[in-house]
Design brief:
9% strand, 10 helices, 5-stranded mixed sheet, single chain, 279 residues, alpha/beta
Length: 279
């Protein structure tokens, strides 16, 4: 069967290369040899001999390929210079080879006497007060772990501002609307939105901003990004850089005024703390 397949392919090759001469004697006359044919014929000849044998690849001899007309020369790739990234970690490992968060998760599972849910696991690794991923440092940008779209271009926030204003007009231009952002990062997205819509005073005066953020470190960065000043009698930024709202009790919020548009800005530990308006 392999021999017949090779003969059929060889016949098709003759018709494709010499469509005006279909007689076999033109392609392979008695006086011509295979070595005198064009290089493309060598490939078909090798394939036909391969098919008519046992359909198993030819044995390759060790060593570099010689200039003996080999159709498939051996290729070697040197991968010794490829970069191998080191293992990424922010925490120093303990003597047991585990970082503090891994030890905490293991202790939590042992305390429960069984598995924990995925939601509980994510809450611990992201928002644990002492070792949570977002809690004690800026994780964004070149000095952090990843970059989000608002950090690349202000166009993202500005387009959302245009969309928000169009939706506000479709709603009949209410006098009070809430813009709520969950996980605002550095506050860059909201800053671009407020800056881009600040000239439309009716819209800007109707907006109140609510940021759902439980990280004291990121709250401080957001306050700086939004250029906030603090209202009299409201919680203010303490000397140590943390907010006077109690992240520990989770029963109050922080309110300020953004100098970008004059909008009131409030921080909340969760969505349930956001006051729902009458409309």
């Amino acid at each position: 069967e392999g021999g017949r397949m090779g003969i059929r392919i060889w016949g098709m090759a003759r018709m494709l290369l010499f469509p005006s001469h279909s007689h076999p004697s033109f392609l392979l006359p008695q006086a011509r040899t295979l070595s005198s044919l064009p290089p493309l014929f060598h490939r078909f000849a090798a394939f036909c001999s391969f098919s008519s044998a046992s359909l198993s690849p030819p044995q390759q001899q060790p060593g570099p390929a010689e200039d003996n007309g080999d159709i498939f020369p051996r290729i070697s790739v040197d991968r010794s210079g490829l970069y191998s990234a080191p293992e990424h970690s922010h925490d120093q490992e303990s003597d047991t080879g585990q970082n503090p968060m891994a030890k905490h998760i293991e202790a939590l599972i042992r305390f429960r006497g069984g598995p924990i849910t995925v939601a509980e696991f994510m809450e611990e690794v992201l928002t644990n007060p002492t070792a949570g991923f977002y809690m004690n440092r800026d994780v964004f940008g070149s000095s952090g772990d990843f970059v989000t779209s608002p950090e690349i271009s202000q166009m993202f926030g500005e387009l959302l501002g245009v969309w928000s204003m169009c939706l506000w007009q479709q709603m009949g231009q209410p006098t009070a609307i809430q813009l709520i952002e969950l996980g605002p990062g550095r506050g860059t997205l909201m800053a671009d939105l407020l800056r881009g819509t600040a000239k439309f005073r009716e819209f800007a005066e109707s907006v109140s901003v609510h940021l759902i953020e439980c990280s004291p470190t990121l709250r401080k960065i957001q306050q700086q990004t939004l250029k906030c000043t603090w209202e009299s009698g409201k919680h203010k930024l303490s000397e140590g850089g943390s907010f006077g709202c109690s992240l520990e009790t989770k029963d109050s919020s922080v309110e300020a005024i953004s100098q970008l548009s004059g909008a009131h800005v409030s921080w909340h530990a969760n969505l349930q703390q956001v006051h729902r308006g009458e409309n």
